[in-house]
Design a protein that fits this description.
The chain is an alpha/beta fold. It folds into two domains: 264 residues, Alpha-Beta Barrel (TIM Barrel), CATH 3.20.20; 62 residues, Arc Repressor Mutant, subunit A (Orthogonal Bundle). The chain contains 16 helices and 17 strands. The strands form four sheets. A nine-stranded mixed sheet has the order 9-10-8-7-6-5-4-3-11.
Amino acid sequence: MPMVTIKGATLPEPAGIYIHIPFCKQKCAYCNFYSVTDISLQKAFVKVLLREMELASATDLCFDTIYIGGGTPSVIPSRHIDQVIRQARQLFQFHDHVELTVEVNPGTVNAADLRDYRTAGVNRLNIGIQSFDEASLKFLGRIHSGQDSYLTFKNARQQGFDNIGLDLIYGLPKQTPQQWRYDLQKAIALEPEHISCYMLTIEAGTPMEKKQRQGSLTPLSEERICELYNIAVRYLCDHGYEQYEISNFARIGQQRDYRSVHNSKYWSFTPYIGLGPSAHSYIHPIRSWNCREITDYINIVQKGKLPLEDQERLNRRQQIIETIYVRLRTAEGIDLTQFEKKFGICLTDEFSSLIKLLVKQGKLICTPSRLALTSEGMLHHNSITLMFI
């Protein structure tokens, strides 16, 4: 378990809580995250979620993040978000400062909702804009317009939110560099603290995957995707955003660091617990996950049981593989001293020839203490990490 030193005492690094709200007004064509559109289940779900929190509270972990995601958390009444936050505060132990994030989608949240979130203690918003282009939004199956995005951001600022992240998607079929620059320019103009740029992936079982199988959708070429990725990196870095993970960019200054504290836990093997249908938890070396279907989830928790579907204990080889894979997603990369101390492997000795080749190709940075992908290397993250396995 990662450790942190406070006033000379070594303590476990603060853990995170993820809460999955599995409701959407409409399923997006590309999304394979678990969600349902039957809003009649909301009241029963929230009641059961509060009960799951009671069942999961028997832990000695101390937390410094709560991330309420989905689905679309903003489709349920704000009073339910307040209930969930109050329950978490009462049941779990927290550090003095807590990063408390709620995901919202334009078209599902208004100024009153945002005011209620602030009152409940929410201090970070993540807005699922995806695109400012109307045709792109329609293709993705989004219910909002570009104007809705502007209004949501404006309302958030007016309600006092000073830590706002925006999500964008690139790599849509036939998307041009000009279209992608348009989205980036519109995002930058709003001056958010954080921007995530996710490459469109066609997931099994989604409407988009069905269209691909039927031949009515042709994915963008790898060459064009690489071009769009490079445009994002250059443009965002030129406008004061630092790439700290493959898809994530933040304003990082001396006075304040806007990197997502919660999401960073996933890339550093810090413990986190997941609540709600399909949510995952990790407490070294155990990874576990809840059942997926909301009706099963409700029935199990109503019986006073945790809704666990399964779990796995990561063996040494799995931990090595995941450490390489996950840490090379980040700009910080792998701490070579810590890696050798934990696994007894000196990566620079074990993979000397490979490392020299990747450094020569401009895809890897290697110092006596650190191994990290360059921005160019991040484009080839999957293939490069496979070389180390």
